[in-house]
Design goal:
By secondary structure, the chain is an alpha/beta fold. Helices cover 49% and strands 12% of the residues. The chain has 12 helices and 7 strands. Helix 8 packs across helix 9.
Length: 272
């Protein structure tokens, strides 16, 4: 990864919790000089202090190349106050990974001429296996979008959105999606226990099955529907289970549709 402009002018990271910390670890792991990063965090851990060094809660650079906003929405106003002076500049890009905070919110707080990218990563970013959707306002250049995408690629895959309105659906599918998968593991393990397996064995089988199936889905050239067919023998055990799971009224399709719709609706509410 190239960090030329950032190395010269600096990167400001507002907030270094789980997501901010994952990003910072990813950048440093890919060669970013720690001295080029200024971290602003009201309650830094000892580990963070040792990692960042002198640039933790220190005076910020005069003209950073990028400000990455990784604070919780309820802390946004106070956090932006510390970097408001960088707003309105064409040469300082703001990149937000804060859930539910719209481009308009940043433009109102920082000035309408501020280049802003809004991004939605998910929690597998903590192990470099996340996926992040990005959308920009009209002040972000193609070079700025490339820089934002490159920074976020340190924690997984990236996709670009054409419309900010799609961010609510992205939040419902990939942002909240890991929780759905974790609950599937819980439910599958509980079902194994109900069939007589020990809790430890049921959880091991459920967790490894979901992880392995996900890896196969990612690596295989076949789509998930075909992979499902590959496992399903006519009249066999998998078909018996899928007859329940794929029921139009009570199965996975209807349940997941309702769940994603509920998450997207809540995301729209939080963004108002």
């Amino acid at each position: 990864m190239e960090f030329g402009d950032i190395a010269r002018r600096g990167l400001v990271l507002l907030g270094c919790g789980k997501m901010g910390g994952a990003l910072l670890q990813g950048w440093i792991g890919q060669g970013m000089d720690k001295s080029a990063v200024w971290v602003v965090d009201p309650a830094p851990s000892g580990e963070l202090s040792a990692l960042v060094g002198a640039n933790l809660n220190a005076d910020l650079p005069a003209s950073p190349a990028i400000v990455v906003v990784a604070v919780k929405p309820q802390m946004m106003d106070a956090a932006l106050e510390s970097v408001r002076r960088f707003g309105g500049r064409k040469d300082t890009l703001f990149l937000s990974v804060a859930a539910g905070t719209t481009l308009e919110t940043f433009e109102t707080a920082l000035g309408s001429s501020t280049p802003v990218i809004r991004a939605m990563p998910n929690t597998p970013a903590a192990i470099g296996r996340g996926i992040t959707a990005l959308v920009r306002n009209g002040r972000v250049s193609e070079a700025g979008m490339d820089m934002g995408e490159e920074l976020l690629s340190a924690v997984g895959q990236t996709v670009r959105l054409d419309r900010e309105a799609d961010m609510d659906a992205v939040t419902a599918v990939s942002g909240s999606g890991p929780a759905y998968v974790f609950h599937l593991i819980e439910a599958l393990a509980a079902a194994g226990q109900a069939e007589g397996l020990s809790p430890e064995l049921a959880l091991t089988l459920a967790r490894s099955t979901v992880v392995g199936a996900g890896a196969l889905a990612e690596a295989s050239p076949e789509d998930p529907g075909q992979l499902r067919v590959n496992v399903t023998s006519p009249g066999g055990t998998t078909e018996a289970a899928l007859n329940v799971l794929m029921d139009d009224a009570t199965g996975f399709p209807a349940l997941v549709l309702r769940a994603v719709s509920a998450a997207a609706s809540r995301s729209r509410e939080l963004g108002k």
